[in-house]
Amino acid sequence: MKLSSKKKQAPGAQHPSEIPAQFQAAPLFPAPSDFAQLHHLINHLNLPVWLKTRQDIPYLNRAMAQFVGSDLTQQDNEQWLNFIHPEDIGCFMALWRAALLSGQSFKKSCRIRHSQLGYRMCAVQVDFPPDAQPPFQWLLSWTDIHDCYEQQQQLTRQVTAQNKMLDASADSIKILTPDGKVTYMNRSGCLALGIPAADKKFGMPWLELLPEDVRASGASALAQAAQGKNSRFAGNSAVAGQAPQYWDNILTPVLDENGATQHILCVSRDISQQKIAESRLQQATEEDELTGLLNRRAFNHIFRLSLHDALQRRQQVGLLLIDLDYFKHVNDTLGHSAGDHLLQTLGQRFKNCFEAGITVARLGGDEFAILVPELRDQAQLMETAQLAWMQMELPISYAGQYINGGMSIGCSMFPRDAQSASNLLKCADIALNDLKSSGRGGIRMFNQAMFEALEVTTKQLTLARSILKSDRIAPFYQPKVLLNSAQVIGFEALLRWHDQSGRLQLPSNIYAAFHDYELASGISEVMQVKIFQDIQQWMADGMQVLPISINAAPVEFLRDDYAEKLLQRIRQYGIPHHAVELEITEQSLSERGANYVRRALNLLKQSGIQISLDDFGTGHSSLTRLKDYPIDCIKIDKNFVERMTLDRSALAIVQAITQLGASISLDILVEGIETAEQLEILKACHCLKGQGFYFYRPLSCADATALLSPCSG
Q1: Are 509 and 499 in contact (CB under 8 A)?
Q2: Does 258 fall in a domain?
Q3: Largest alpha-carbon pair distance within the chain?
Q4: Do 106 and 205 fall within a single domain?
Q5: Is the CA virtual torsion 646, 649, 653, 655 positive or negative?
Q6: What domain range includes position 404?
Q7: Which of 48, 165, 360, 461 shows its CA 20 to 30 Å from the CA of 259?
């Protein structure tokens, strides 16, 4: 046992001169002279000491007597054991008994009752010298470590509390060394990485605990943190039997006083619910709710990426733009639920019929798009289009009724037709519109001629807008006559306009405008106003007003308010209804909005306005539709008149139409009469009315006025 000669006092120790006389250390028996020096040495130690000599004489020094505050007697060599805390005595006694038998020294920390301070934690040292080394049998001493013990306990409690707090956190918290070794991990971190929560043997490489697909991101973030920079990366973890978790990992360096990274705090927050919410939101924003296909937004994103990838790999991409024919008719006749069922069924069929890699989307309404990446050639694109078209040919029923419909498909190819997503979509749309304008149903591949036609259309639309804006429209009037006498019986109002040089131009130069609702309606309004102003002036001048026919383009009926607007203008200018006739083309009866046309014609007919069917014989299903519309007059198209002198079939058609009109009490008027020979043939066919250059060319308002007669009386 090493004895210290330092004068440092143990807690509560007093200078020997301050110790009460009854506690002055002294041998319980007069010490033999050979122990005097030992007694003197031990008595001046600040360390409480109890010893037993070889002569079985117990001895305690002043520090011991002062500590326990009791006059121990020699009758009980173990009396000092009573000062050990009851909770500690059992363990200590076991060690003490074993040591007495074995003579082996030991150390033990336990609580010993201090005379003034209560129980104090002490480090007890019991020594048994070898038999060859007298003078004592055993020596017991202790050191008061209570303050250090309390500090350690406080620190332990703080660490335990902190660990509990960290373990209670849902975040995965780890402390790493700058080279990426794990020195601490809370419970959430252990669970997330599949490490037993009770296993505190850390030191493993952190990166090896991460899934392989995020290790590169983790290594980059670790390197940044080791350099003293905050870093962040997204990660995931997968533990057997659990759903995958997604983490937002933030690495914060802990720096020493020199600014070097001492530790790295890694806090990983579980963002799985956020990912699920984001996924659902993405699904909601990218998926068409009705069909489950991609919507326009998601398709456009994939479209651009596919073209960029194809450009890098020098590959082709095919695009199909699909429009359902007569879809509005399905909604109108069977209901919108039937239309929804049709779209859902087609969407499911599209999902199932195409091979992996082909993207199908619903762009909106009854419009679908199909993207074919890694396209070999045009033949493959046509095969894909044919497969899509066949999905509509398979029967689709709703509420016991079959849904009849068709499909029109426009096709384009990258990079042959266009080099950008927007232009490629435009090319497919051009092909689709070209197909629909020439008869719906089928598949049409884009070609450059269509684009050139579109350019012409664009120029015509631009010109029409300019004409409207600058008010350069002027109505001209072509007389209608009785063929036998050439007597003028009415006029057809024809559109003419002046160019910037004042030259008169024909409507064919702005033909595309009559397929655009806004432009067609705008031109029609200007024409009607100017016609009614001319009629109003003729009436003011006392002229006899003859019926004037006004032409209506099919597209003008699409807002289902054509009749109301026309009647309102007639009332505004005070024009008698019998002075106005309406001419529609046979195309109006078969175009979309035919129901609107029927309603408008019935309303106008009830108001006393005559209805003429122009270009009769050039459309389809003409005879079956005559009974459904309030038609007063049929106009034989000028093409039959031009051909009838050389083509017997054309003459037969003229004769048949004339006989049909007579049999169903309809007036017949022949257009385009230009020669005397044509006139004689038409008279022979019993045609009574007509118009054409043989009689009059279209006249200005002033020239038409000259043909009017003053009102009688």
Answers
A1: no
A2: yes
A3: 175
A4: no
A5: positive
A6: 287-446
A7: 165
**Nearest of 218, 396, 414 to residue 303 by alpha carbon:** 414
Q: Which strands, in side-by-side order, build the sheet including 118-127?
A: 58-60, 49-53, 136-144, 118-127, 106-114
DSSP 138-185: EEEEEEE-HHHHHHHHHHHHHHHHHHHHHHH-SSEEEEE-TTSBEEEE
Same structural domain for residues 314 and 441?
yes
What pLDDT score was predicted for residue 22? Answer: 38
123 with 180, same domain: the answer is no
Answer yes or no: do 333 and 417 share one domain.
Answer: yes
Shared domain check, 294 and 259:
no
Query: The whole model's pTM is what?
Result: 0.55
Radius of gyration of the chain (CA): 54
- For residues 58 and 53, what is the distance between their CA atoms, to the nearest angstrom? 6
Last residue of a domain, one of 392, 414, 446: 446
Q: Is residue 395 part of a domain?
A: yes
Residue with tokens 């533990």: 239
Question: Same structural domain for residues 351 and 205?
Answer: no
Assess contact for 493 and 513: CB atoms under 8 A.
Answer: no
For residue range 67-82, what is the model confidence (pLDDT) as tens digits?
888 755 544 556 777 8
Q: Identity (one letter) of the amino acid at 195?
A: I
Query: What single DSSP character describes residue 591?
Result: S
Q: What are 209-265's pLDDT values in tens digits?
A: 888 888 899 999 999 999 999 999 988 777 667 777 888 889 999 888 888 999 998
Q: Are residues 549 and 669 in the same domain?
A: yes
User: Tell me: the pLDDT tens digits for 101-122?
Assistant: 888 899 999 999 998 889 999 9
Q: Which of 417, 446, 475 is where one domain is finished?
A: 446
Q: What confidence score (pLDDT) does residue 708 get?
A: 93
Residue 163 belongs to a domain: no
pLDDT tens sequence across 526-555 = 999 999 999 999 999 999 999 999 999 998
Residue type at 291 in one-letter notation = T
What is the domain count for the chain?
A: 4
- Asked whether residue 218 is assigned to any structural domain, the reply reads yes
What pLDDT does residue 1 have?
A: 36
Q: Helices (DSSP H) in 169-248: which residue ranges? A: 187-193, 212-226
Mapped to the 3 state alphabet, what secondary structure does 467-502 carry?
A: HHHHCCEEEEEEEEEECCCCCEEEEEEEEEEECCCC
Percentage with pLDDT > 70 across the chain: 86
